[in-house]
Amino acid sequence: xxxxxxxxxxxxxxxxxxxxxxxxxAVLDGYDLGVGVLxxxxxxxxxxxxxxxxxxxxxxxxxxLVLGVGLLLVAFPMAHGIILSSLYLPVALMLIGIILxxxxxxxxxxxxxxHKHAWNFAFFFGSLMAAFSQGYMVGSYILGxxxxxxxxxxxxxxxxxxxxxxxxxxSGWLIMKTQGGLQRKAVRWARxxxxxxxxxxxxxxxxxxxxxxxxFDKWFAMPGLLYLAPVPIITGILLVMLEYxxxxxxxxxxxxxxxxxxxxxGIFVLCFVGLAYSFYPYIVPDQLKIVxxxxxxxxxMILLVGALIVLPCLIGYTFVAYRIFHxxxxxxxxx
Amino acid sequence: MAxxxxxxxxxxxxxxxxxxxxLFPSITIALGWVLLFFKSRYNAVKDQKWMDAYFFWTKIxxxxxALGVVSGITMSFQFGTxxxxxMETVGNIAGPLLGYEVLTAFFLEATFLGVMLFGFRRVPGxxxxxxxxLVAFGTTLSAFxxxxxxxxxxxxxxxxxxxxxxxxxxxxxxxxxxxxxxxxIHMLLASGLTAAFLVAGISAYRWLRGDRTASVMAALKTGVxxxxxxxPVQIFVGDLHGLNTLEHQPQKVAAMEGLWDTQAGAPxxxxxxxxxxxxxxxxxxxxxxxxxxxxxxxxxGTVRGLNDFEGNHPPVRPVFMSFRIMIGTGILMLxxxxxxxxxxxxxxxxxxxxxxxxxxxxxxxxxxxxxGWYVTEVGRQPWLVTGVLKxxxxxxxVPAPMxxxxxxxxxxxxxxxMVAFISTIYYMARKxxxxxxxxPVSSTEAIVEAIEK
Lengths: 335, 453
Hints:
Chain A is 81% helix and 1% strand. By secondary structure, chain A is mainly alpha-helical. Chain B is globular. In chain B, 72% of the residues lie in helices and 7% in strands.
């Protein structure tokens, strides 16, 4: 194994861990941001149920973002500086969005009743702002931080599509965690947001190879094309399957209520694999390679030891928490 | 805006973010343990008042925790957006420390907070107590790692510089760097005092409004006694911390004391207005020889002055003033907690003026903690990492107007949240007094049922 002998495995391991954290973040905070955006379309009593479906989880979900950015910061300080200073304003907007929704979650249950509407709006608007800014950043990253008008337009489009994708996974979560009228409503939301998601996937799949000759060659040169063909093909199958299931839901005895959520996770994973493949071995597209951006090996090593001990525990107790709060969401009380 | 200095704007932004952030951990680190105390008292004596206190303070804890988490996320991005030079120079050391904080502490507290807040009916009683413990433990562990990093920035050790980058040579020395033990204990006690005065102050507010149920009195006593016990310990530890600073960062102590010339038998300034241009103090009120006595434990001891460090010492006035605000607040805390503590011991109640004093001082822990952090952080300037990296050299190339926009947005958000936070806490205190809650949770059957599950 060439990778092991030349010492590059350590930065690559960290890149993989960072990617994994970002993916888990997109899935987990994706559904609760999505629920936040969808809350705009629900009456007050349903809003309470929607909130209680994500109540015990959102704190830990957001921590994956801190871990992902933390790993970027810790393992690739050069890249962290370039990426975050290029994305200065969207990062600031995302953070303010996250602040607003995070606190609105608590305030809406505790503040005066007449302020509850305002906090509900803050929760919706903060979720929207965070989701949109994240999509904008993905778009800007794909184009290597192109600040021209067309670059900005593309990033805005990706931003809107990511909002749709989060709404899709958020609706999937609600279909799984709720029942009755709200569940039926969530099925409708899912079908609408599926279209936005498909647009986004199409847009990125077309733009990425066109914007970079290197990525074009990676995808369309010969043995690569064969290995990679399953990624778009399975994604396509999952999308069609999702639309099919959504048309049938809800079924008797709530059968398959988990299917949209799980299928959407599959789609997220495949999109992530496609993006990761396109950009490897670069951490800043076409500018800085993973290996060149890494911290000193002795520092990475000490962190890796900790990460390998802690990550299994962390995933373990995350499962415990999901186990404790499994089943349909009810009204949230502090008891 | 364009002619504003990006270094100054970035510093103001970082100061604003971290000041807002520290307010909430300084409550939650200790309030977590206070909650565990309430829960354990209930487990031991099965008196409903402890559970009522637990539920009321859990809600405030949740609010503080949410504010702490979201403002903490902001911090992890600031390094890259505004201070890329920091990680580029000392990333090999700061990185693993921050990484361990997220891995060992952040997830632990965030995950079990869900169980602690919403799991009372869903898990057996012991699991709920365990979750409460893990949240308290997680917040404290989080403080441990952050204080390690901050102390290392103040008094770096256990590294070598290779090509302008710090490389770790001895992790034990990095973690247990010279100022770390003092700073950690000083901060944990500060958090204890912040939580103690918050609990005592909000309980006193309820007491003043005639809400004197057993649970209010139990929380009031917990807060007052905790404060009365911790404040003398804090004064003692603070003095040790000062002596440690004198050894490793004498220029910071000189600024704290407002001492310009090196002298034997240096006076203690109760008040003054340091003037950095003229390099002298105005309106001094001084106690002769006291500073030497405190710092060297000898009335004739020599204390080094700022003029020994000209061009390499922190701005004097903010350090000098913040230090006096911290000490003044500490003395008020001593008076308030001891007066109320003595009344509680003698008559099992407080007097009206003590109620007023405690309720006015509900957020005094914030004042002292923030002032203390300003002393130590401004006191480190012009260095970001003492002797290794200057603050001005870590700045990002982001233009000043952009920083101006983000700073304005942050300031507006924080001001709004501060008003919302404080008014909501008082609203919750009033509502709790009207018997509106904790109705759904205080029915004894539900709790017994949950405990015995």
